Structures are given as C-alpha cells and as structure tokens.
Amino acid sequence: MLTLGIWSFGRDSSAVLVDETSIVSAIEEEKLSRSTGMGGIPRLAIARCLDQCKAKISDIQFAAFPRRLAISTLRETRFRLQRTLSGSGAAWTHSLGRNFREAAQLRQTRRLYGASTPFLFFEHHLCHAASAYYTSPFERALVLTLDEFGDMRSGSLYLGEGDELRLLQPLRFPNSLGWFYSRVTQLLGLRARRDEHKVQWLSKDGKPDFAPAFRKIFQWNGAGLPVLNTRYFGREPEEATSFTEEFFRDSKLDPQAVASDPQLRASLARSARDVLEEIVLAIAERYRKEHSVDSLCVAGGLFLNVFLVRALETRSALKKVYVQPVAGNSGSALGAALLARKSLGCPARQSLPHLYLGPGFSSSEIKSVLDNCKVIYKYPSGEEPLLAEVAQLLLRDKIVAWFQGRTEFGHRALGNRSILASPFSEYVIENVNQYIKHREDFHPFAFSAPAETVSQFFDCSPNCRFMASLGTLKPGVPAALERFAFEGRTVRVHAVEHETNPRFWRLLHKFGERAPAPVLFNTSFNLFGEPLVSDPREAIRSFYCAGIDALAIGDFLVVK
Predict the structure, then answer these.
(1) What is the pLDDT of the chain when averaged over all its residues?
(2) Full-model pTM
C-alpha cells in the first residue's frame, strides 16, 4: 500500500511517498530541477520517489494534496468582497490569475497521474498539523500551525489525542504572523518569502528598539488570537504591500535609512523577532491552560525560525515541544500522505528518526560519473582509511565537501550533503562565508557532534537532531568554540546519532581523536543561490566551482 503526498501550489513543490509503516522517500522539486523555490507540478520529485521503491504511478492507492482549491477560492472571494470598496483592481486581477493558474495546474496533474490514481484534498493547515503531531512521540498534545496563508488561513490550533486531530481555532487571513514577518523582510530590502532565514540571523546582532511600534500591529480577539491592525498596512494585504506612513511616524523610522544602516536593519529584525515570540508564547500559554496539556507540536513556515522554537522550549510552561523539521510548505506533503494513509485504515502515527529520504547512489553509479567527468580520484580500501584521510584533511584546516547516502529532505544539511570544516581553524568563518558560500558574515555555523557526547559541550533539546532549534555552550568547553557563540552562549547544534548516520558519526569520532573535541562545522553543500546538491554530477560541479579543498563522495575521495 502506497500513498503519495504532493505539494504543488506555490513555491517549494515536493513529493512524499509512504507505505503502511514508513516514509519511503521524500524530495523537493528544486533539488532535482536545480531551480531554487521551484513551484508547480513536482514531476521530477514524483518520478524519483517512485523510482526509490521501484513502483509505478498505478501502484499508488491515493495521491493527496494539502490544499482545497475550491474552498480556498471561495474564502478569498468572500474576503475581497468584504473589502471591495477599498480594494484595488490589480489585487483582484492578481488573485483571479493565480486561482486560474492553480486550477489549470490541477487539471494537468489529473491528466498526468489521475487516470488510475484517486485524488484526495485536505485542508492546508490540517496537513501541517498532521505532519507535526503524527510524527511526534506524544499521545496527547496541543498542535499549533502558523504560516503566511494556506487555504486563506494563517494558522490553526488543534488538539491531538491518539490518532485524532480536533480543530480548536483557525487563524483567518489577514491576521497572519507569517505575512507580517514577510513584510519585515521586505522592509529590510530582502526578498519576501525567500530571505526570512536571513532576517532571523540578522536579528542576533540587533536590539529591540522598534518592538513597541511592532506591538501595535496586532491586537487580540476573544479567542486569544492576534488580529492585524490594518491601518499600518491598508485594507488590502498583498505581497507588494508594505508599511504605511502611519507606521513610520509612530516608530520614528526613516525608511530611506534602512538600506544603508546595518545596525538599524539588525534592530528592526530583532524587534520583529521579539514581538513574534511574545505573540506565539501567549497563544501557546492560553491554550495550554485551557486544555490542560503540557506537550506542543508545531509546523508551518514560521517554525523554520529556530529562535522561535527555542523560545517555546525555554520560556514557556510547556514540558515538551516538537517541531516537524521540514516545517514549510514542502513538509505539508508529508501530512497529506499520512492523512491519506489513515483514510485507508492504516495507522497515521509515523516516527521520524531521520530525514535521509531523498535519492541515494551506489558506488558504481558514483564511479561512472567521476570517470565521465575525467576526475582524478582516490579509492581508499575501506571506510576506515577514507575516514582517516578526511579527518586528516580537516585537522590540517582543509574544507571538505561530504556527499554520502541519501539526500536530506528539507533545506538543512544533516551530514549527507554537507560542507565540513574544523571549528578550531583560525580563519574558518572567512574561508567558508566569503570564498565558498558567498554570504553575509551574520550567518552562524552549526556544530555537529555525536549525540552521546553532545551534552558534554552543549545544552540542547531533541529538536537539535534536525538542527531545528538552538543550543547553549556549557562551561568549560574548548575556548575555540566560544568565539562562535552569539547572544551570550547561544549556538546552532546538530546532534548526530549512530543509528541514523553511522558514517558521519564515525567521522566525528575520528576527528575528535586528535582535535580538542569531536565537533565539526557543518553547512549545506550548495553554491550561492542554489538548492542543496542531490546527485553526484551536481556535487562535482559545485566542488570545482567553489573554494572547497576535497570531496568525499561515497567511497571515493577527490582532492584539489
């Protein structure tokens, strides 16, 4: 029995294939098409998911979509009719065009896959909730989903008990924390819906000087949910809409000064982050008390913000917090696939021990690509010699691209498609940020460490298995690690388990035999502006186009 979850409406299209007991495969279209944020029908992703288990589309019991297009269109029409006196014709045109495109896309999907495969459609935020609750270890939990808008909802609260999810409250658009955060991204001169991750890292260097002004943007309704104060944006919240003159007067902010003042940009980012955390913590606390529940599951694009997840872990009265690590739209396909499986009478609950769910390649396939590219490579006689050579390179302050096993699902590199470096190297920040990643210096690095020793160096939660939260440096760690902390002793942490990634786990221990600690810097293996690499040919191209010293690809080693 196979069910296929498909996200194809908007950016980050993806496909997830599950059987009766496990997640068989999952991949985003962008990693195969090599086009960042790729939307539309994920044809390559669907084909690769089926190929992973040697299945055909006719073997699929249900194809499930985390979108109810007709209901979403009706909700949007009602929303715009309520604002018809002040709404613009351009907004209507944009809305109608998008709805027609999505309807045409759905018809095309039916022509491609619907002849032998029934389609199911689920509420967008129900799929987010299912992806979080059903993969969590909790039997009873509050479930909170937040994003910009999906099916004209900006979030939802559910109560999960056993295999059931009961809707408590929807958060209706335009009362959207995700939309607010995207407008702050735009205010900072960054790309809305693309660069929100930059805003979170920019915030670590700022002060909450504008928090009082941002607090005025939201009020509270009787259900304890935020309501957007539209006088700061106008009555037509659209992607191109920005803050009104009234906001700039209240905040005493000169919009012309934002682009040229790094400290001002950092303070705006920090202020938005603080207000966002306050609101989400207040929502969680109200519903925790109301339903006498001490566990929380979260999903939706807003929870890709690791500061927000850490705030819930450390500043709320909740005992346990679980974030579905592929929290954005691409992860909603997982929830749709699990809901479809549940409709067939199979258990909905699904453990998520790892995210290595994309394509993998055999030694012969990798060798064929290396030979075809005329690359000179080494073939160490076994895993131990390979790990010894890679560890030696890292100890000599070399930067190593690490291409092993199956591609990670999601945007974070978790030790299979990673660029690795020693944190004890003097110029590692400059070398990686400036000459390889070509990104701003405010981006922090993630520390990868073996799960059984991570507690010696870091105070972190189980969410750090997926790099979905933050940790804190413990006293007495090697001094070299302390120079990479921010906001006191905060760091990014990735706990590597032997059961899920034995080769990377052994490399960390091999490096730790001669280094002050078994800790490596881990950043995503991709060129600037490109998705995470997936196949060997892309790995070789990226290796030779960047200032990386060596490539450990499967059982082979390439050294410049």
Answers:
(1) 93
(2) 0.95
